[in-house]
Amino acid sequence: MAEGGVQMATVLIRHGRIVTAVDEYQADILIEDGHIRTIGKDLVVGDGVEVHDASGLLVLPGGIDVHTHLDWEFGVARTADTFGTGTRAAAFGGTTTVIDFSNQTRGESPLAGLEDWHRRAASACVDVGAHMILLDVNQQSLADMQTLIRREGVTSFKLFMAYPGVLMLDDGSLFKAMRIAAGHGAMICIHAENGQVIQVLVEEAVAAGHGAPKYHSETRPSLLEGEATHRAIKLAELAKTPLYVVHLSAREALAAVAEARAHDLPVYAETCPHYLFLTNAEYERPGFESAKYVMTPPLRDLSHQQALWRGLRTNALQVISTDHCPFCFNEQPLGLKFSKQQGQSDFSKIPNGAPGIETRVPLVYEGGVRRHGMSLQRFVAVTATNPAKLFGLFPRKGTIAVGSDGDIVLFDPNEPWTIRASEHHSRVDYSLFEGQTLTGRVKKVFLRGQCIVDGKDWRGREGMGVFLKRGECGTL
Ligand SMILES: [Zn+2]
To answer: Whole-prediction pTM value?
Structure first.
């Protein structure tokens, strides 16, 4: 018996081309008891070993998505995926580890928030870790941060500079939490937008009768993302803590991160596929359809998109995650609580967020490797290795090495396919990338040696994912 309570087969993956963040070579992989035991040429095995032929395929470490909101209550809305459906979708997209956001409830301990998250996460089909969103910064929650780090394996904290009255912390609170993280090997993840100024712009737009979804974008200008990113970096510098900027979308924010890194500060940033593939032209769609693209920060114009691809090339950006925060477009069948329709006449009431957990790895392959000259090693780094290193999971996760977990993706770099919401595994009813044709497709996925995705067939089960107690956050 092993983790997850399942008898584990010994598995041989042979004749594939192994790609890691530093290597590329032809070899076989033997996985025993969930771990990679041997990597070598033409391995010879006895009977009873499950053999998978990876001829012509890339053999990649399982993807790691460090930004998801599964089964998450946000104001009066709730995300449409459970951990069961969301992580099954992740698996079909080549992701075998998810770090999701647990959150403190105002007036309660973050430890209670983690307990609630564990209850919801019990149905996970891939391995999961938790970040903690802090909403109250006081003596008790600062003490609880240390318990979370030492005892619970929660070594990263998300702080919001946006959504005043709901999630936002003032600068003093940000600074206090940063100092605790600094002393205990934890990472601060920051949502960097100037929430108070955005609130002014939103109130003015609503008062002027501007209810259409595109005003979501017009009231969240890139300058305010740049300003907040710069401010967060300065606070983190003073607190001497590493900083990880989530869902970076704006040229101005990228410039602030690049400048900090040029001064040797431990500042990191992720962007998401929607900022790399889409622009604010989506907000010109007729009627309410553009509500599908209401996420925060909003989509930007092409010059920002080009800057982000440049940022990936120059290592100003180190990670691509999804910010999978799915709300259905239609009210039925899940109900209004799970739907964008809440904001039918008022953009400020549209639940902020979009799906993407299943399409990240193939999109980065298509956009990065095929269209923007990204090396295969860099592709693996930004989708698996870097997130593992930054969030205390390496080398258990994020690479293919002897002793690492047997989380493997067999990827056909030549197979074309078209993204269709009707074929994906999330409960959400649309895709941001509907109709886009990609080359490069996930064929098989192994979680700790168990084949959970085999072509179109699902062989995993809810609850087989284990909770990952994470170690100290690393540097790159
Ligand atoms: Zn998010």
So the answer is: 0.97
